[in-house]
Amino acid sequence: IAAITAFFFRLDDLLHLVSIVTLLVHSVMAFCVLIVRYQPERKKGENEVQMQETGGNQTQGQEETAPAAEKLTLQGLFFPGGPTPTPLSGWVVYVCSSLLVLLLTLLCLVLVHWSSLLSGDPVPITVVVLLLVLITGITGVIWRQPQSCTPLPFKVPCVPLLPLLSIFVNVLLMMQMSAATWATLGVWMLIGFVIYFTYGIQH
């Protein structure tokens, strides 16, 4: 496969493809670090213990130990109810992180492709300021959510700032790639999705 690829593509094209794939992978990793840090801890063997305590009646045990349904409020976004992550706080971080990736991508598009930005044109400057305000506000919501206290041998410091900075730099570099590189990435991603959904997901 490597030999056939090298035969049909120029070296510059292959280097650009490797670069954009590496940047994409690192962006996805930073996004996953951001998501996982704020998810509630899942305890193994919880269902088995409930079944033993209730004599096999798993449904009854789950109903007795089920927490009260949480409600999403504006105050709860900035002042969560407890120091430990909950399913609601994990969902809030997931949605906010997805919005941040979208806003960071738009910001990078403006910074790279809007040539009048440095000329003092008020329109692109206003767009950049608005995007920065939205990014700062959503980052504040994520920062206020409780983080997981699960002991790990290594944790990324300065969450959520460091993962977001990593995503921003990676996407900014990706936006400077040529259209041909993006088209090649799209073809390879399509091939990868076909292989995954027809074979990999079942194995």
Automatic annotation (TrEMBL):
Biased composition annotated in UniProt, kind: Low complexity: 50-65
The keyword Glycoprotein is annotated on this UniProt entry: yes
A GO cellular component entry from the record: endomembrane system
Similarity section: Belongs to the amino acid-polyamine-organocation (APC) superfamily. Cationic amino acid transporter (CAT) (TC 2.A.3.3) family.
One term of GO molecular function: amino acid transmembrane transporter activity
Region (Disordered): 46-65
Protein keywords: Amino-acid transport, Glycoprotein, Membrane, Transmembrane, Transmembrane helix, Transport
Coiled coil regions, renumbered to chain: none
Membrane topology annotation: Multi-pass membrane protein
Protein name (Swiss-Prot/TrEMBL): Solute carrier family 7, member 3
Compartments (UniProt record): Endomembrane system
Pfam families documented for this protein: AA_permease_C (PF13906)
Keyword Cytoplasm: no
Domain spans labelled Cationic amino acid transporter C-terminal: 154-203
Annotated TM spans: 14-36, 91-117, 123-142, 154-173, 179-199
